[in-house]
Design goal:
The chain is globular and about 80 Å long. The chain has two domains: 104 residues, Beta Barrel (OB fold (Dihydrolipoamide Acetyltransferase, E2P)); 202 residues, Chloramphenicol Acetyltransferase. Strands 9, 12, 15, 16, 17, 18 and 19 form a seven-stranded mixed beta sheet that branches. Helix 2 packs parallel to helix 3. It is α+β, with helices and mostly antiparallel strands. The protein starts with a strand and ends with a helix. It has eleven helices and 19 strands.
């Protein structure tokens, strides 16, 4: 019996996606709940699982096609009997290294060195789109790589590291004879030939296109301005060093810096509500809650999952939410629901070494706090020059809604709360 595979619900207000990659080809065996395709939406990549066991008979859409929720994208022939034939009546492909014909060819290499094992086929089905692309780009066999993600899953970083190790292991001896021989054969005074160069063109993912469009739209629509301040991190570092072991023992989570900044931001947003608001048409929408979007680097690009009701949560719950977002972003398992909403954003470029930046707001929000690296710098304290761990803070805001006085005040509140964390305990 044939079963139609349709595009699942993709989240509130999301009506379509595009086929990012086919994980199964016609003739491939499919288990119940095994992903057969990866759909790319504006924010996340979503795997489409098979509701039945059988054999993939036919693709109804090609890679890159835009498909609406509910549209039929594939046909599954149920049961083991389907293994003998595909939807077109042809026999299932033999395990030869040549690719089988398909309406939407897989982006896998045209000629594999050997037939993949059953274990490898099963493992490939769990790879995120970014990991699969990295595997194809670097030509690394994923079955030879030990994954560092959750449950041993491969990450993009694992593939890149394996590719680099493979390159280093090959050494630089192989290419050297050719240039040497060419130099010997070249006439005296002849110009040395240029080394071969290549270019690669890869279509932007739907998510990357959306990121580009939204960021450019924010620049064009909002009146963006950034105010800066510097912050002495001594008190937070001291508190963290003093309590991190007890905190980890009690809450089973590491005490980081983001929890401090999230709570400090909550104080500022309550005192300066316009920074927690946004413009909708000719109205200003104010919020009596604080939902903080936390910018997280994922394999497919920057994503911003939301800490709901951050103003009502303690340090432990905030740190747990952030750790969970980071892990799931790396694995590619964040959902649309994780990223919907948000009234204010915190982006930490310091983890990548950024000294200072002007972050762009995340529409329709009106402000974003940029964190940067901590470095020892000389500062004047009570008339003396001392060395302190300092961080530059940046608050980018939509000047259509937020006046300079309000932006500076909000950033000053955050600075003061970080420099004296007791303020966060007594709501100052």
């Amino acid at each position: 019996m044939a079963t139609e595979i349709t595009v699942p619900a993709l989240g509130e207000s999301v009506t379509e996606g595009s086929i990012g990659e086919w994980l199964k080809q016609p003739g491939d065996a499919v288990a119940i709940d095994e992903p057969i395709a990866s759909l790319e939406t504006d924010k996340v990549a979503v795997d489409v699982p098979s509701p039945v066991a059988g054999v993939l008979a036919e693709h109804k859409a090609a890679v890159g096609d835009t498909v609406e929720v509910g549209a039929v994208i594939a046909i599954i022939e149920e049961g083991e009997a389907g293994a003998a034939s595909s939807g077109s009546g042809q026999s299932a492909p033999s395990p030869s290294p040549s690719p089988s014909p398909s309406p939407s060819p897989s982006p896998a290499p045209a000629a594999a060195k050997e037939t993949p094992s059953d274990d490898l086929v099963a493992a490939a089905a769990t790879l995120s789109p970014a990991v699969r692309r990295a595997v194809l780009e670097h030509g690394v066999d994923p079955s030879t790589i030990k994954g560092t993600g959750k449950d041993g899953r491969l990450t993009k970083e694992d593939v890149i590291a394996a590719a680099q190790a493979k390159k280093d292991g090959a050494g630089g001896d192989a290419p050297s004879p050719a240039p040497a021989a060419a130099a010997a054969a070249a006439p005296a005074g002849a110009a040395e030939p240029h080394p071969a160069r290549s270019e690669e063109r890869i279509k932007m993912t739907r998510m990357r296109q959306t990121i580009a469009r939204r960021l450019k739209g924010a620049q064009e629509e909002a009146a963006l301005l950034t105010t800066f301040n510097d912050c002495d991190m001594s008190a937070v570092i001291e508190a963290r060093n003093k309590y991190k072991d007890l905190f980890a023992k009690k809450h089973d989570i590491r005490l980081g810096f983001m929890g401090f900044f999230a709570k400090a931001a909550c104080l500022a947003l309550k005192d300066v509500p316009s920074v927690n608001a946004y413009i909708e048409g000719d109205e200003i929408v104010y919020h009596d809650y604080v939902d903080i979007s936390v910018a997280v680097s994922a394999p497919n690009g920057l994503v911003v999952p939301v800490i709901r009701d951050a103003d009502k949560k303690g340090f432990a719950r905030i740190e747990q939410d952030i750790a969970d977002f980071g892990a799931r972003a790396k694995e590619g398992t964040l959902t649309m629901a994780d990223m919907q909403g948000g009234t204010f954003t915190i982006s930490n470029g310091g983890v990548f070494g950024s000294l200072m930046s002007t972050p762009i707001i995340n529409p329709p929000q009106s402000a974003v706090l940029g964190l940067h690296r901590i470095e020892d710098r000389p500062v004047a304290v009570n008339g003396e020059v001392v060395i302190r761990p300092m961080m530059y803070l940046a608050l980018s805001y939509d000047h259509r809604l937020i006046d300079g006085r309000e932006a500076v005040t909000a950033l000053k509140i955050i600075k003061e709360a970080i420099e004296d964390p007791t303020r966060m305990l007594i709501d100052l």
